[in-house]
Amino acid sequence: MWIVQFFNTAILLLMVNYKYNKIDLGEASPILKGKYKDFTGGWYGNVGTAIVYTTFITSLLPLANFLFLVKTFCQRCCDRKCTMNSRRTRKLLQNDYEKGYIGPKFQIENRYAVLIAMPLVIVTYTAAMPVLNFAGLIICMT
User: Fold this and answer.
1) pTM of the model
2) Domain coordinates in residue numbering, the chain
3) What is d(CA 80, CA 74) in angstroms, rounded to the nearest whole number?
């Protein structure tokens, strides 16, 4: 999973926007038919900003989990009529009670894929875009 995320974020974006005339992959393929032959100011303005936005959004995404945690806590509090007694509930069936307190399945494989792929993206482009180091700090903190 992390290989796919790294490829989509770092490699594919570079290959689509790079212009290389010596290989013809056909008219239907957008690979190597971009606008930039080198890392110019225009490349940083278009492709570089897309990479920076992607890494910052990905680094801040785990904070959205905190909002779901607060929402779940408020739902449980309303279920208990704002008391701290965990035995008190408005649910009539055990299954409904368990759905409210167990929560969704935690997909740890997706989180680990982000934790592996994003630092690789940052290391790949950090020499040209040092602001990515700050995104790496946010990823490590969240």
Assistant:
1) 0.72
2) 2-141
3) 10
